[in-house]
Amino acid sequence: MSYRATLIPGDGIGPEVVAAAVRVLSAAGVDFQWETEAAGAAAIPEHGTALPDRVLESIRRNGVALKGPTETPVGTGHRSVNVELRKRLDLYANLRPVQTLPGVKSRYDGVDLIVVRENTEDLYSGLEHVVVPGVVESIKIITEKASTRIARYAFEYARTHGRKRITAVHKANIMKLSDGLFLDCCRAVAKDHPELTYDEMIVDNTCMQLVLDPTRFDVLLLENLYGDIVSDLCAGFIGGLGLAPGANIGEHGAVFEAVHGSAPDIAGRNLANPIAIILSGAMLLDHLGEHAAADHVRDAVHGVLREGKKLTHDLGGKAGTSEIAEAIAAKL
Ligand code: ATP
Fold it and tell me: pTM of the predicted model, to two decimals?
């Protein structure tokens, strides 16, 4: 079977790691017809915008995309392509699995949790304005619709993936209305799933508990901003951003991308670790129902890490991005 899919190389290390993922996916024996589209800073010279309409049209047509990181200017400049893409395609669920990988030195063993992050609202609504000079207001939007939808997604995911416990993370002691509404929605959905354990934890305490013992957690269910911060924290448990995959899922499309950003400090030097996006590619295969190929890709990644002969510099090795891709492809 052949699949049409959108390919977004992105900025910084994006083109290098995306090429590595394409190499591995083709070695996995699943035939992809990639439709390559520019987004991010890379799209501005030709299209005058960081997110041309043709990118959205391509993803709507194909249903799936593999995406490299896109640069987001800090403080000024164009709005985040990631935020726009997730909103415009209504990719409401951001899924970030965090699993200990064989052979990778990290502070903890046996971490196996998944971060389920709401992807469309919260402080990411982009509603900011200057009230008077020196006073700025950023608006946090939490709705019953989006909170219920993400809670349903998390519980359904847990049920179908053998997960047992869902922890809703919040700060409802301070944001009583917004985070209070989020919790009300989670509780209502939890009532429909008596087979799963549901509990709640305040976000600051969650961070401390995670650092003390991340193996205690199973599924974390969070609003957008807490989800962003907590998932980077969790990436640190398993050896860093170079290893953390992700997916953005909606009713009509899905975009697979690593948790990490465009890493301009190492871009264009064949130094980036491609494993995060290769594992995102495995999630894409799962999404398409190609579970055997997805498992093969994960096994090949684990094999290379376990051997420890070919590692990128973030893991203490000297191998280049393309060398890692070849080593993984050779195991397929
Ligand atoms: P963004 O705002 O887009 O998230 P950022 O600069 O905050 O960008 P990253 O681009 O993810 O975050 O980079 C954070 C650090 O992690 C940098 O030092 C970068 O070199 C490193 N890093 C990120 N991704 C990788 C990777 N795939 N391989 C090796 N190092 C990486």
Answer: 0.93
One-letter amino acid of 49: T
The response to whether residue 277 sits with its C-beta less than 6 Å from ligand 1 reads no
Tens digit of each residue's pLDDT (9 = 90 or more) over 67-115:
999 997 666 666 789 989 998 999 999 999 999 999 998 889 999 999 9
The atom number, within ligand 1, closest to the CA of 272 reads 28
Report how far residue 20's alpha carbon sits from residue 17's, in angstroms, rounded to the nearest whole number.
Answer: 5
67 tagged catalytic: no
Whole-number Å distance, alpha carbon 80 to ligand 1 midpoint, is 16
Judge whether 122 counts as a catalytic residue.
no
Ligand 1 contacts CB of residue 227 (under 6 A): no
- The number of beta carbons lying within 10 Å of the beta carbon of residue 189 is 24
In one letter, which amino acid is 36? T
124 as an active site residue: the answer is yes
> What sections of the chain are H helices per DSSP?
14-27, 44-47, 53-62, 81-88, 144-160, 178-191, 203-212, 224-237, 275-287, 291-307, 321-330
